[in-house]
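Fresh eyes needed here. Kindly weigh in on this sequence plus structure tokens:
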Amino acid sequence: MCGTLVVGVCVFGTDLIARLDSERVLVLASPDYRFASALGELSTRLLATPDPLFDRLRERVDTYRELHRLRAAALESFPVADTVLRQRPFKYGKTLFAIVNLAFLRHYFDFKGGVEYEPVLRDFSTPEEVADAVSTIVALANEHRPLESMDITFPMAGLDVQPEFIQLLNYGRVVSKLAEVQKLIGSIGYSLVNVRSGRTSVFCLRPPTDEVEYALRLGFVRGEIGGSSSQLHVARGDDRALFSILTAVESMVASFADKMVEIKDAETPYRRLRLLLPLLPSIFEQLGQFKFYEDVLMEERLTQELELPMRFADGEAWTLVEHLDLQTFHRAWRVLRFLNVLDIALLKRHQDDATLLSNSLIRVASHEKHVELLTAFGLGTEQVRAFLDLMYLDVRSPGHVDVQYRPFLVVNESTMQIGDEVKTTRREVVHASSLVAVANIIPNVQRSHQIRFATNAEAFVTIAAENLRSLVPKIRTNAPVKQGTQRTDVDIVALAAETLYLFECKHSVTPTGAHEMRDLWGDIQKGVAQLEVACEILRERLVDYLAGWFPGTDRAVASHVRLKPCVLCSHRVFSGLAIRGVPVRDHASLSLTLGDATVHMGMRNENNEVRLMRYRLRTSDQPTLEDLDNYLSTDATFFRMFRPHMQPYSHLDRLDDSVVLARNTFVYQVSQEAWQARLDEIGAQRLADETVTVGPTQPPKG
């Protein structure tokens, strides 16, 4: 291996190292001391080779050696994990799903029950971290032997949260963290160093540059800000009465709870809550067509990131997968979500009964029951099959396991001896109601099944071109550029008096973790490379291309036109970064810059009113070319406004008692006073304050 790598770097340079990273050639899924020894030998050889050509390879080999050390040290505290994962029946299946459900219930639904289980989750910061850990454990257990009914669905009194379970859950947390570290190292070029050894080892995860981490964190911060502002857009743009699904369900439960639920095995330690709902198609039809406040709010958030299919013709059906269009899928999902929110509201009424609560935290149904339910929703046979293929996480072919992306786990049948009879269960489906209730389902389906709406990418180019056209009328889309063997195409070319703007548009689903960021980073790098090729060709033949794209262009003027490339993303992550001189920007900030350029901040009072302090990021009513140039510069006003509020810090994760993972990153901290002072400092124009009433209305009583 050593000699091959050295020769490869001599021939192919740093491009080979980037390929080694992306293909994870220098890392294994679990510690392997022979492989680690080979890396050590390679490191020794590289130290004896002072040629700067090998500096990058030296750094990457050192990082992967530290990754192996981190993995070995962190997993040393879980010696029984593999044994527990191999055991059948797998005794912690039910408890895993119950605990993740409880974590989401207590965080998102003001759930007070289950407080006695809080110590189980003391090492987790968010319910999403619990879901990651549970997903990891399910995947690892299933690798040893596909899970079946006896592993997860058989009745048991209470939850089994003995120390062994807590250790297993934390094992899932650590393995999940290590996988994220590995992906950041392999996909984006992060490095890992051991900054302290001894009784407590501290490993520090560092970005390739501070600006990469800054742009990544700022993207997520802006996503949260955009999510909050969605309430304002909904309040301004929709004059219909919008009811919250939560208040609608609570009103329904208050009136009809006794008719919608029963307690099974009421006088036993196995008592549990069961929903009683008639399968009336008319009810499901009404629910499927009705939009709650949360639906409209989610659509607004997805629209900001261009994650919903964008229509050019009214009434056009968008194919999600074969036999199922997006509208039908979403209608069925809304009903399914309603039923799970109803389940939560009914369970909430019984949360003081610890036994009933613990026995009702997972829901189990047969595959046939799901088919019957979806048929009652109005779906045809092929639509039902397609819908369940999207929702099911089948142990027979699980792929990437994430209980938030695909919240319904399908387990195998169990065969057992009962007296003189051999009985086999049906294939059963397990889910946690809170995971269904809070799922951001449209992006999740796209992520888990690698679905990309081709029309979205096309529409993104069209929308961006129209935004630019108001400022730069001379525009061509999908413009081919070629010379000899070099060829590419540019999504948007826009000619101003002295500048040719080149935009390469990249439409991707907004990432939720390192797994998706690998694809996004690859898209951005590809866009930069395409623009570099285009600029290289255009520098030699610019006059000819301008004459062809924009007939009548003065050739003498064209010879002095400068090139200004930009990678334009549909999402905010990495926006504000410059890669080899090419700025990375996003749809939301470009639309703001070429639109009213207004930003605001305010707090909601007890009457759901928000008084907004507003600023315009320019002094003129309409945008100018100077504003566009400023936006594409390294000192853009839009991104400067965040700088004082993004503070560097080291985020610490204690993986066990003796291993700490530190990450050099940034945190957003701002007050309204500091925000106002920064906007005044950068010369933004103060506008009149605005008061907006936000939030859903209340459903009529009765």
Observations:
- The chain is about 50% helix and 20% strand.
- The first strand starts at residue 191 and ends at 196.
